[in-house]
Design brief:
Elements lengths: L2 E7 L3 E8 L2 E9 L2 H5 L8 H13 L10 E5 L10 E3 L2 H9 L8 H14 L3 E4 L27 H15 L7 E7 L3 E7 L2 E5 L19 H8 L6 H8 L4 H6 L4 H9 L3 H24 L6 E6 L5 H11 L5 E5 L3 H13 L6 E2 L2
Parallel strand pairs: 1-4, 4-6, 5-12, 7-10, 10-11
Antiparallel strand pairs: 1-2, 2-3, 5-6, 7-8, 8-9
The structure holds adenosine-5'-triphosphate and butanoic acid.
């Protein structure tokens, strides 16, 4: 039996779980009040604070740290790397200190995992970080030689549900042709072909469909006029893209439950804007279908918004003609982290080395 502590630092909380093999034994979502996190200029500076909250939570659990066989953290904005389970090493930690690709709460996953694992002399891993990059070269190009498309997406959940979908279809993931749409606070739609995500929208940087709180793609001309108008700071424009964009910008909330209740109560504006978001998601799926030249084993809808039947139907009615639609509502990043570590601990996969 393998006992695994998984750590998933998010923007407002740090989730931890303890599994014994596939069995969840303990979970805790440690909330971090905004006033606490605001004290730290950079995500990396939250290391000691978040680590201590995790140690406090473990002290309140039925377990002690030294009972763990491995510690796995969510991986962050690392250099572009292929998917899989990686042993946490110093190169990773140094990269996260500098964070040249940006600050994301998950940057701390590897740092905390390594520190705690070193205390008890067990391995530390990360699994399928947001920086997973398996894109075909042709997908990287834009019409501006100065700008290349980047692969930054919900790799952990996308890969986990793609494995489950392949299993359900009876096809090995290494041979499957899937379009996976992760519908969360951010939205990413990835083309999975023969075990690799060969194209995907950058969910963090104004690429793809709008989401509950992100703008997705917008026309460039009006954007650069706005950027140079002198009316906005760079930080304000960034917030319009990430954090305050999408449904939140129109409706004042990014909460799918609230929006769904508003629609049920007859709010036509809310209904129309959700239709707009679903239209954009369906268009993105349609463009992914061309990448697979129409040979699609399944379209997979996952993430929190895939729990909403209205949203599922709005997307499905436009993409049904492409083939089978499989639903994996919600996400289980803790399970995905744990299973990634388990595959390595059981010798089913070799851990990869981050260079
Ligand atoms: N049953 C549901 N009905 C409607 N909306 C829902 C439901 N469950 C979750 N949502 C909405 O789905 C969205 C994403 O929530 P979720 O907690 O899955 O994602 P997140 O972790 O915040 O974001 P991300 O998936 O991008 O990491 C939120 O707007 C949430 O309110
Ligand atoms: C890029 C995927 C992770 C996120 O949406 O924060």
């Amino acid at each position: 039996m393998h006992r695994i502590l998984a750590i998933n630092p998010g923007s407002t909380s740090t989730k931890i779980t303890i599994y014994e093999d596939e069995q969840l034994q303990y979970k805790n979502s440690i909330k971090h009040p905004a006033e606490e996190l605001q004290k730290f200029p950079h995500v990396y500076d939250q290391f000691s604070y978040r680590k201590q909250t995790i140690l406090d939570a473990i002290a309140d659990s039925p377990y002690t740290l030294d009972q763990m066989d491995a510690i796995v953290g969510r991986g962050g904005m690392l250099k572009p790397i292929e998917g899989g389970t990686y042993t946490v090493n110093n190169a990773m930690i140094e990269y996260m200190k500098q964070a040249p690709r940006g600050e994301h709460a998950s940057n701390l996953g590897c740092v905390i995992a390594k520190d705690l694992a070193a205390q008890i002399n067990v391995p530390a891993y990360i699994v399928d970080p947001v920086a997973v990059d398996e894109m075909d070269d042709i997908a990287r190009y834009t019409g501006m030689p100065q700008i290349k498309r980047q692969s930054l997406f919900h790799a952990l959940n996308q890969k986990a549900v793609a494995l489950k979908a392949s299993d359900d279809l009876g096809i090995p993931y290494q041979k499957a042709r899937l379009i996976v749409a992760h519908l969360g606070g951010g939205i990413s739609v990835g083309v999975h072909k023969n075990g690799r995500v060969i194209d995907v929208n950058n969910a963090l940087d104004g690429d793809g469909p709008m989401s509950p709180e992100r703008s997705g793609s917008v026309p460039l001309g009006p954007l650069y006029k706005m950027a140079f108008s002198g009316d906005y700071t760079l930080a304000e424009i960034k917030r319009m893209n990430y954090g305050n964009g999408g449904l939140l910008a129109y409706l004042g909330t990014n909460d799918g439950f609230t929006i769904s209740k508003r629609i049920e109560a007859g709010d036509e504006e809310a209904k129309f804007l959700v239709e707009v978001m679903c239209y954009q998601i369906a268009k993105e799926i349609g463009s992914c279908a061309t990448v697979l030249e129409g040979q699609i084993d399944a379209i997979v809808l996952t993430g929190g918004l895939a729990k909403d039947p209205f949203i599922v139907e709005e997307i499905s009615k436009r993409v049904r003609f492409l083939g089978t639609i499989l639903l994996f509502p919600g996400e289980d990043e803790m399970e995905a982290l744990t299973y990634g570590a388990l595959r390595v601990l059981r010798g089913l996969e070799l851990p990869k080395t981050y260079l």
